[in-house]
Amino acid sequence: MSVLELDGLIGSHPLGALASFGLLRVLTRQGGEPRLYFEERDDWVARIECEHASVDDLIGILAKWSRSSRDELLSWAKADVRVPLEEYRAVLARALGEDHELANFLSALAADGAVDKSKGLIKPTAFYMASGQQNFIETMQSILTFVREAPSKVWREALVGPWAYSAPIWGAGWDPGTERMHALRHKAPTKDKTSCVPGAVWLAFEALPLFPSFTRDGRDRTVGFVLRDRVRHWRWPVPIRPVTLDALAMLVSSREVASATEARRREGIGAVYESTRSEFGQGYAVFRPARRIV
Fold it and tell me: Which superkingdom is the protein from (predicted)?
């Protein structure tokens, strides 16, 4: 096993953490038993224990994998995640019988049973931050297309850095650094273009099955989010001992992380961070810069 230093993935950053979790999930599904942890330097930097000898080898594996990944997932909904409940349940039923990986994503993308009363559409995960002309599924299709056009460059940017925001695509609202607060900027909104780190956003998308959505008392909920003063906040752990995917899945859904108690130190967690899901208008949202709560 090699230990690969991934200086582009920072555990205190919501997109960096989510991308790190997604990378562990991708590598686990390819075989072996990789492990993830973070080392504290100026910040929490991701480390992966895996069978690949170097970061270059890892980038090559991801480049090959991304050429054929996820087309079936991105074609499940013609419009977006928010579809009529009956349509969602029909697709989920087929996936449960034919494609468990697709079923895992579907269970993460929407909360079965929670429906928008005005339009009758299923309510999406709290990681869904699109509104208006934005389309979550189409955004992921665009990002995957961009990744496939220059995979080596894209994966190096995401894993090693620096993050150059190489894709002129909306980044799903997961990166606080891309929030455009126009009253404080030198450009007019019409001239201020969107951008993202496509490899990081795609790996973050791969992490979503770690955070299933569900319904409680008719309301949608997403694992990892806490509700305070009617505002949702995502909390995540920064493991300092190598963890497998199964162990990480337990940590991100644990009571210790949700309540941010000192008991988390017994679990090999170096810190717990929280990022506010700041919502604007009719559902558009963005993660705000994280704060360390433990």
Answer: Bacteria
Flag whether the pTM goes above 0.90. Answer: yes
State how far the Cα of 281 lies from the Cα of 275, in Å rounded to an integer. Answer: 19
Task: Give CA–CA dist 168/135, Å, rounded.
Answer: 15
H or E element: which one contains 202?
helix 198-206
Tracing tokens 């559902």 back to the chain, one arrives at 283
Structure tokens at 225: 């989010």
> How do residues 154-203 score in pLDDT, each as one tens digit?
999 999 999 999 999 999 999 998 865 544 444 545 555 789 999 999 99
The C-alpha atoms of residue 253 and residue 258 are separated, in whole angstroms, by 7
Other beta carbons within 10 angstroms of residue 152's beta carbon come to 12
In this structure, which amino acid lies at residue 253? S
Contact 196, 167 (CB under 8 A): yes
Q: How far apart are the first and last CA of the chain?
A: 31
